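Incident log, support desk, overnight shift.

02:14 A customer reports that sequence design results differ from what the structure should imply. Their input is reproduced verbatim below. On-call engineer (initials T.W.) acknowledged and began investigating.
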């Protein structure tokens, strides 16, 4: 039991260390993010609201973002990615670079986790014949996909926050 507790503590230490590391930014990523950040700073007169963005601006200049600013960085990257501005202004290579950076932010890790959970649910369909599949809107930018087999019905929700299993019925489907 003690050995298991030590292994668990070691694993948690490694996981914590990975999430507390400084986030390295390359010059392309900085060049994509800084104009968006500058626009926000120019539109915000409140010194208190500006402070974390000024700190992020300095971190981007140093090409290293501390942990406490990665959520803010992720929010800016997400806006640029979802709006299509990165691809339009800088091209697909820049979009891929920013996507890579976004995946290292807390929000990017949340999205990845939601996809892992959805893929695990989809794995339950392996080997089963699909009897029905449909998609419906649950609201603006929110959709549900229903997949029905003889023994299972999955409802998976797709929304800006990520992908999540909304409902699973096992048995009569």
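02:41 Re-run completed on a clean worker. Output:
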């Amino acid at each position: 039991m003690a050995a298991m507790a030590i292994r668990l503590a070691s694993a948690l230490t490694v996981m914590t260390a990975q999430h507390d590391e400084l986030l390295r930014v390359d010059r392309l990523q900085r060049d994509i993010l800084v104009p968006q950040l500058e626009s926000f700073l120019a539109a915000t007169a409140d010194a208190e609201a500006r402070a974390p963005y000024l700190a992020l601006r300095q971190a981007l200049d140093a090409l290293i973002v501390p942990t406490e600013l990665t959520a803010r960085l992720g929010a800016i990257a997400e806006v640029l990615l979802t709006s299509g501005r990165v691809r339009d202004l800088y091209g697909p290579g820049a979009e891929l670079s920013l996507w890579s950076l976004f995946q290292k932010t807390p929000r990017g890790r949340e999205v990845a986790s939601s996809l892992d959970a959805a893929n695990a649910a989809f794995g339950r369909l392996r080997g089963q014949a699909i009897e029905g599949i449909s998609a419906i809107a649950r609201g603006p930018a929110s959709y549900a996909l229903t997949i029905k087999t003889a023994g299972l019905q999955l409802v998976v929700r797709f929304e800006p926050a990520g992908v999540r299993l909304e409902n699973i019925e096992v048995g009569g489907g």
